[in-house]
Structure formats: C-alpha cells, structure tokens
Design goal:
Layout: H1 14-65, E1 78-82, E2 90-92, E3 118-125, E4 142-152, H2 158-164, E5 171-178, H3 181-216, H4 218-228, H5 247-296, H6 303-331, E6 340-343, H7 344-358, E7 363-368, E8 373-376, H8 378-395, E9 399-407, E10 410-417, H9 443-446, H10 451-461, E11 465-468, E12 476-482
Parallel strand pairs: 7-9
Antiparallel strand pairs: 1-2, 1-5, 3-4, 4-5, 6-8, 9-10, 10-12, 11-12
Helix pairs in contact: 1-3, 5-6, 6-10, 7-8, 8-10
Organism: Streptomyces liangshanensis
Subcellular location: Cell membrane
EC number: 2.7.13.3
C-alpha cells in the first residue's frame, strides 16, 4: 500500500461488512441475554440456597427441642452456641476447619430476649489456621450471610438442657452459614455454556449473513455487468428486472428508465443536430447560389437585389445561430444572469406597442389590470413574449390579444390569435424543437420551429409553465409564472 493511499479499516466487500454488522449486533444481543441469564441463574440459585438453609435451620431447632445433639454431617455449615459456654454445642459442614470444639467461632447470644427469633445477618468468619484452597470443605476468610434462630434452654427442660450440655438458664443460638459456592458454581457453568453457544451462534450468524448478502447481491452484480456495457454512443442496452419485487427490482427498473432517458436524449440530440444542419443548409444554399450566379454573370446581375438577398439570408443564419446558442445555454441549466423583478404587464404592453409602430397586420392588443411583478431576467422574459407574439402574428387572421392577470399568487399571461388553431393531438408537439405544423408554407415566413421550444424552456427556467389552452378558437398559449412577493 502506497503512502498516499488511505488505510482501510473496514473490508470493501458489502458481504463482509454485512456479516460483521450482523455478528456485532448479535454479539450485543447475546451479551445482554447472557448477562440477564447469569443474574437470573445466580439469583435463583441463591434463593434455593436460602430455602435450603431455612429448612436446615428449623430442622436444627427441632432437634434441640427434642434434646438431641445434631450430627456434623450437613449440607451447609452450621454452628450452635450457648451463653455461658466457650465451646460450640454442635457444629457441622465446613465449620470443622475452625475447630469450634475448643472455642466457638460465632458470637454467643445475649441471655435476655425471646426464643424463636429468626434473622439473616452478615458476619465475618475468622480463620483459625492457614486456609488451603485445595481443601474443599474449608471456608476461606471473609464475610458471609448467616441465618440465625434463638432457643431458650428453660423451654427445653432440665433433662434436655443437660443432654445438650448447657445450663438451664442459658440461651442457644443456631447459625447456618449461607455459602455462595453452589450459586457461583452454577453461574460459572452457565456462563461457560453461554460462551460456547454464543461463539458458535456468532459464527453461524455471520456465515448466514454473508451467504444471504451474497445471494441478494447477485442481481446487483448482473446489473453492474450489463450497465458497464452501456456506451454514450449506444445506450440501448437494458438490464434484466428480477421478479422479486424488492428494492433490487426497483433499482433495475430505475436504471432502465435512466437508460431510456439517455437513449431518448441521444436520439433527440441526433435529431437536433440533423435538423440544425438542415436549417443551416437552406439559407447557406440560397446565399451561395445567389452569389455564384452573381459572380458568373456580373454584367447581368442586379447587385442591390443580390445584396438584399444575401443580407436576408445572413440575418436568418444569425437568428438561427442565436437560437441554437440560447437553447444550448438553457440545456446547460445555467442560472439567471441578472435576477431581478420584472413587470410582466408593462413588458407585454411595450411588446404590443412596438408591433403597433410597425403598422403591419394583424392588430395586436394588450389587456392588463395593474402591475404584474415576477422574478427573473427582463431580456429573457422579453424574448419569451416576442416568441409567443411572433408565433401568434404568423398564424392570426385579423387580431392577436394579450392578457395579463394576477391569479392566486401567479401571474397568468395569455397570447390568443384568431387563426386556424392547433389540433389537439399536436398540443405538446408544437413545443418540440424544429417542429412546424404548416410545412407547406415558406421557411422564411414560418421560421425555424424553435420559438415555442425556447419560450417553454425560458418559462421553466423561471419556475413557470407554458401550455396550449385546449378547446379554444384559434391558438391560446398560457404562461404561468410565480408572482414576486
């Protein structure tokens, strides 16, 4: 790895990342479950030990009431001490390691107090001799929970007290030590089982996640391979859409739709280039033919007429070049150069006034009801209006009307003519580039077929819409632009 290449901390494969993520999530869940199981097992084991100690405690108390000295064999360590006596009355379990036969380990009870009192307390057990960890019956030094119950010797009678070796006025206390070893051993065993099961579960979950992700990504790999064969010159390739109906199928559908748009754009671009070349060739051919005739027969050429023809064709070429450059800029989605506020009503009146100055038919009128402010570039709005007016003037029989209205936060401008109108099937086609529905007329009068396409692109550029109103006599183009606040 070069010094400039960043260090990768995560695998690049989606399959590996999915397996790691699944294993990490499972590890967190299993750790939480393991902690809960550990606590629950330890708690329940402790409850079982407490119940066993309580049963043993009352069993020892019953033996004392019978005047019998309990034996040393016991599931839990215990010790019975009496007031006024140095050694233990009885002991068993792991208490032998303290040798309580010489001196009792746990404290003597006070003489006063009622018998039958039951309690759980924490006491510290001293170590009378070095403790050997290998001696399983011994208790290590430390604090333990003990369960106690008191018995008065005078309730037993002289004979039973004598059999127990205590004075008739003494008080006995039974201690049962609650050792945590069984609960801890069971918890350790459970922890070991959980660790082994959890480790195997993590490996299994990671493997399943890896395989499942690999199977799920097979269509994606097929889509990648098919998409890699798509070129700008030939975007006709399509990917296979799996019949699963899941996100991958939606991805394949979206890719096919994108490829279709690219294909349509490529077709449109080729058609645009062909139409532009055709439109450029017509005036160039006319201009070249007139110049060649004039040069071949200079003495019989009407040079003013030839110059007029050349100038007319040159202006046509210039207008077409400007339209093509404007369309290229609009296709590039360039921002508005000089954003500002434009009074669309005043601009429409100015365009109508300029047409009135020329004095040519048809008659052009403008009807507005106050200012109509919109945001945008004045030159571009003027170009939009001129394109609409020029189109209406070419098709009108006698008159063209412009109206400007303020409707619910929108400025609505309409340009209506009394011409033959546009067939319903061509309502959208008229906005395509280089489209002329009246092909029989001359190109000089009909234009290049870019005016309405430019007008719609300019409307869209300013957040508005340009449509052809249906069902009206003649043609009525409706421009809707957001009103400036």
């Amino acid at each position: 790895m070069s010094a400039a290449e960043p260090r990768r901390r995560w695998p690049r494969s989606v399959r590996a990342r999915a397996a790691l993520a699944a294993a990490a999530a499972a590890a967190v869940v299993l750790a939480g479950i393991g902690w809960w199981v550990h606590r629950d097992v330890y708690h329940r084991s402790t409850e079982i030990t407490d119940t066993q100690a309580q049963e043993q405690l009352w069993d020892l108390v019953d033996q004392l009431h019978e005047g019998a000295v309990p034996g040393r064999r016991s599931a839990l360590p215990y010790e019975i001490v009496a007031s006024g006596r140095r050694s233990a009355v009885a002991y068993g379990g792991a208490m032998e390691s303290f040798d309580p036969g010489i001196r009792h380990v746990l404290p003597s009870p006070p003489v006063d107090g009622a018998s039958g009192y039951w309690d759980i307390r924490t006491l510290r057990l001293p170590v009378r001799r070095p403790w050997d960890p290998g001696e399983r019956s011994a208790l290590p030094d430390g604090s333990y929970r003990v369960m106690t119950a008191d018995v008065r010797a005078d309730e037993l009678g002289r004979d039973k007290a004598a059999a127990l070796g205590v004075a008739p006025a003494a008080k006995l206390r039974v201690y049962v030590v609650l050792v945590p070893d069984p609960a801890e051993a069971l918890a350790r065993t459970t922890d070991g089982l959980l660790l082994r099961a959890g480790g195997a579960g993590l490996v299994l979950i990671a493997a399943v996640a890896y395989v499942a992700t690999r199977l799920a990504l097979r269509p994606v790999e097929a889509i990648r391979v098919r998409t890699a064969s798509v070129t700008a010159s030939d975007p006709r390739e399509r990917v296979d859409v799996p019949g699963t109906g899941d996100e991958i199928a939606a991805l394949a559908t979206t890719i096919n739709a994108t490829l279709q748009r690219l294909d349509d754009a490529a077709v449109q671009q080729r058609r645009f280039v062909a139409d532009a070349a055709h439109e450029l060739r017509s005036p160039l051919t006319t201009l070249l033919a007139s110049l060649e005739v004039a040069l071949a027969y200079p003495e019989r050429t009407d040079w003013p007429a030839a110059a007029t023809t050349a100038a007319r064709q040159t202006r046509r070429l210039q207008a077409l070049a400007e339209d093509l450059l404007l369309l290229a800029r609009l296709d590039a989605r360039a921002p508005v150069v000089r954003p500002g506020t434009v009074d669309l009503a005043a601009l429409a009146a100015a365009v109508a006034g300029q047409h009135a100055v020329t004095g040519g038919p048809p008659a052009l009128s403008c009807d507005s009801r106050g200012p109509a402010p919109v945001h945008g570039d004045r030159d571009e709005f003027e170009r939009l209006l001129r394109n609409l007016v020029d189109n209406a003037v070419r098709h009108a029989a006698h008159r063209v009307g412009i109206t400007v209205r303020d409707q619910d936060g929108w400025i609505v401008l309409t340009v209506r003519d009394d011409g033959p109108g546009v067939p319903a099937k061509d309502a959208e086609r008229v906005f395509e580039r280089f489209v002329r529905l009246d092909d029989a007329r001359s190109r000089d009068r009909g234009g290049a077929g870019l005016g309405l396409a430019i007008a719609r692109d300019l409307a869209t550029r300013h957040g508005g819409t340009l449509t052809l109103a249906p069902g009206s006599p003649g043609a009525c183009f409706v421009l809707r632009v957001p009103k400036a606040g």
